[in-house]
Amino acid sequence: MQQTRHPYRKHIFVCTNVREGEETCCSRRGSTKIRDALKRYVKDHGLNDAVRVSQSGCQGLCEEGPNVMVFPEGVWYHHVQMKDVEIIIHAHLEPFKRCEPASAPVAIRAFLFDLGNVLLPFDHMRIARRLAPFAKTSPERLYHMFFESPLQELHDEGKISGKEFYKKSCEKFGLNLSFEQFTEAWNDIFWEDPAMTEMVQKLRARYPVIGVSNTNQLHFDHAREHYPVVREIHTWILSHEVGARKPDPAIYKRAIAAAGVAPQEIFYMDDRLDLVEAGRRLGFVSEPFINAQRLILKLRALGIEI
Ligand code: FES
Q: Among residues 147, 163, 186, which one ends one of the domains?
C-alpha cells in the first residue's frame, strides 16, 4: 500500500443506494438527478482535475435522504432536493469558478507562490501519526489537538521559538520525547513535486519569483535544506518572520514590495480558496492551485510561455 495526498480538492459523495421493497432510500427520492447535476456542473466548468463527484452506497441515514457529503469540509446535506444543488455549488464549488482569470489581458511581471500544497505537497497527518505513540493517544485525536490549538498560530507567527513550541506541546499534549525526536517527526510532512520544481526553475530566469507562506522556522529550515524548489525562490516572505499570517495584508504588502511591481502584475497561487480571494481583493491575478499541469494551462492562457 502507498499513502499520498488526496488527488482532489473537493470530493462530493451522493448516496444513490437503492433499498429493497418499500424501504426508504436516497435513490427513490431523486438522488441520481442530484448526482448528475453536480457532475454536469463540474464537467461544464472544467473542474474535473479538482473536484470529484462520486455516487456512494448507503450512508446509513436513509430516513434523512437524499444525502450528500462534501469533503474535506466534512459537511453533510440531508433532505437534498434539486433546487438545493445550486446552494451546494455556491458553497463549495463556485469559489473555483470565481477564480477564473480575468478576461482582460494582463501583463504578468512577477510570481507569488504559497509553499505548502503548492510548491511542496504536505500532509499534517504524518506528524500526528509519528507523534501519537509519544502521547499515548490516537493520531486523529492528536491531529485535532495540535492543529486546532493556538500554539500552532503562535509558532507560525514567530511569537514562540521552535524549542518553546516543543516544550509547550509536551506539556499541553502529554508528549514524552526529546527535542530531536520531536523535530524529526514535526518536519516529516513534505515531499517533492518535480513538476513544480521545474516550473519555478523556468520562471525564475525571466521573472521575480516570491514565496509567501504561513509557516514556522522548523518547517521552513527543513524544507529549504531538503527541497531544491525552496532554494529556487528569489525571496521568501514568511509568517514567522513578518509576525503575521495570510490573509493579513501586512504579509502581502511585504510580498508586493519584494516583487517590485504593481499588484495587478502579480500572478498569485495558493491552495486555500479564502487566500486566493484575499489575493484577488489586493489586485493580484489570483488562482487556486490544483496541479502543475493546470497551472501551465492557466499561464499559457495569460500569454506566458512555459
Ligand atoms: S439509502 Fe441513502 S443513506 Fe441509506
A: 186
Q: State which residues form the domain around 212.
A: 110-121+190-301
Q: How many domains, the chain?
A: 3
**233 falls within a domain:** yes
User: Are residues 169 and 246 part of one domain?
Assistant: no
Gap from CA of 15 to ligand 1 centroid (Å):
6
Atom 1 (ligand 1): residue with closest C-alpha?
Answer: 25
Range with the lowest mean pLDDT among 19-33, 89-103, 114-128, 181-195? Answer: 89-103
In which order are the strands placed within the sheet that holds 266-270?
235-238, 209-213, 110-113, 266-270, 285-288
**Could you tell me whether strands 209-213 and 110-113 are parallel, antiparallel, or unpaired per DSSP bridges?**
parallel
- For 266-297, how does the pLDDT look when each residue is reduced to its tens digit (9 = 90+)? 999 999 888 998 999 999 999 889 889 889 98
| pLDDT tens sequence across 78-103 | 999 998 998 898 888 876 665 555 44
The answer to whether position 5 is within a domain reads no
Q: Which of 32, 58, 78 to mutate to test the pocket of ligand 1 (most atoms within 8 A of CB)?
A: 58
Regarding whether 278 and 143 lie in a shared domain, the answer is no
Atom of ligand 1 nearest to the CA of 25: 1
Q: Is there a domain that residue 104 lies in?
A: no
Ligand 1 atom, smallest distance to 26 CA: 2
pTM equals 0.73
pLDDT of residue 21: 82
CA-66 nearest atom, ligand 1:
2
Task: Let me know whether 35 and 65 are in one domain.
Answer: yes
pLDDT attached to residue 98 = 55
Residues 114 and 244 in one domain: yes
* Alpha helices in the chain, H assignment, sequence order: 31-44, 85-88, 94-98, 125-135, 139-147, 150-156, 162-173, 179-186, 194-204, 217-226, 228-232, 239-242, 249-259, 273-282, 292-301
Residues in the ligand 1 pocket, defined by CB under 6 Å: 15, 17, 19, 25-26, 58-62, 65, 67
Atom of ligand 1 nearest to the CA of 24: 1
